[in-house]
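INTERNAL AUDIT FORM
Audit reference: QA-55
Scope: verify that the stored structure record matches its stored sequence.
Auditor: D.O.
Record contents follow.
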Amino acid sequence: MKSLMRLRSSLLFFAVLALSFALPLAAADNPELFPLSDVHPGLKGVAYTIFTGDQVQQMDVNVLGVLKDALGPKQDIILVELSGADVAKDGVVAGMSGSPVYFDGKLAGAISLKIGAFTKDAIAGVTPIQNMLDIQQAMPTQEAMSIAPGGNDSAPAMSQTAAGGQSFGWPEKVALGGNQFLVPIETPLVFSGVLPQTLARFSTDFQSFGMSAMAGGTVPPTPEDAQLKPGDMVGMQLVSGDLSMYAGCTVTTIIRGRVFVCGHPFNAFGSVSLPMTRAYVVTTLASDLESTKIMNTGGVIGTFQQDRLTGVVGQLGQGPAMLPVSVNITTSTGERHSHFNVVQNPKLTPLLVAIAAYNGIIANTTYTEGTTLQLDGRFDIAGHPSVDLRGMFVPSEMPLSDAYPLAITIESAFSRVYMNPYEIPKVQNVTVNVTSTPQSRWSAVDSAWADRSEVQPGQTLKIKVLLRPYRGAPFLQEIPITIPAQAAKGNLQILVSDADSLNRMRELFPGQSEGKLQSLDELIRVINRERQNDRLYVTLWENAPTLLVEDKELPNIPASEINVLDQRRMPGGAQLLYQSEIGEHSVAMNQVITGQQYLAVTVK
């Protein structure tokens, strides 16, 4: 009987202990807030995070002080020391950003900073909770709550971020004195279905965004994914499908379905539309350089809408629409098709599509280095012409994968469209077709000559070009051209060249720079009109003025019109050149062409 009573007493004790542990977490939908003005050195509290599995663990918190205006006016940081749980082994961990901190059972803020690299000292910076809640004032799609949770009947003061509706960048470091600095806790960027070569090649790109790349995985979605509590992990999904990529943060609080995470910006993008996923910690990898959480991601449970100075905020519910990307690889032994969904973000989407294409190529089991790659694709934009993705890429002597220049070409085309100054493009879908051909296929222009030195307008002139291939004997390519009927008498220059030479000449024309264009349609036409490096070009030039207006070339402008333009001043974006292109011919070579030669003939 006594043993039974002792058992009941023990069970009651552990039940009360479990209840006291879970109490701050259970009150997440309407947390009572601990005012920053009451925070002082020596104040004791607790924080919650996950080190392994689904179990939220409690850490002890000791306040060291408050750093006033550390991030800017009225942007303070609470400096704390952590202990308990696995803190002694792991320190402040990448992925811990957003871990909620409580004093007297009231929510005070989110762990967001740590002391630099090469240390496991458990000193952390905490973003005050009110600064995180202020983000709501910047949300354009929903009316911000006028009454703060926890019974505060005064409207929260807007932070710098919220007031202007703009995102301010997180400082690189906050000085502590004694050559010590607080830096933002890195956000783990977890890849699944990505080869190590891809991670190695693009890791520096993500480090520039404050993310630490690592391998991870995915798990099937479950109905329990959306049952979040403070201390749980969530993912900001960037790519899904045959390749998965997401960043992880810890949940600080959930208020009426609105989820506050990180305590610092993901990338300070401002208004965003990122799928919110449930994330699960597999384990925490301890490291003197940087301890980090290794995670899996589950189903989509909502949308992150704001990425601001003091945190990231989203809403539970449906995820946003993403950009569908198809990558089709053809080799001598067959085809392989990959499909992805990528977030739409001007800064991230170009890089993400390039990574998807790069990984899709090198992950093909029939792909080998030392091959020539032919790119033929496009992406469609609502209300505008499609943008062509074209080019041929040969193996390089540089220590780079053959697929890397192709991926960078795709990234460049996307960046030019997304960063245009005219309007926000709505890209609808992307198709990337790549054909791999054995060996390095390229030839250099060795010499060129015409079959006569004098011609009449309307006559045909044969241009002969000697090309020297990468391997094998030189060969002759003949290109017949017709002298335009409007060709003026006198000297006619002929440029035999590759595509790059012509494209560079166009870039030197101030009137043809992208900053002089007037619309996205004009920019797309300029992109699509760029010459292709697998063609040999013959261009005819004469000494006559050309007017460049926006994306149009008006050759052979009469002197009378030039005088009128001079008197009335040139129209906006116009540029006058004193040489006119009167003809261009090209021939497909099925190999990359390099080099150039100038010729001259006389028009009689």
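Auditor finding: record pair retrieved intact. The chain has three domains: 22-149+159-316, 328-438, 442-603.
Action required: none
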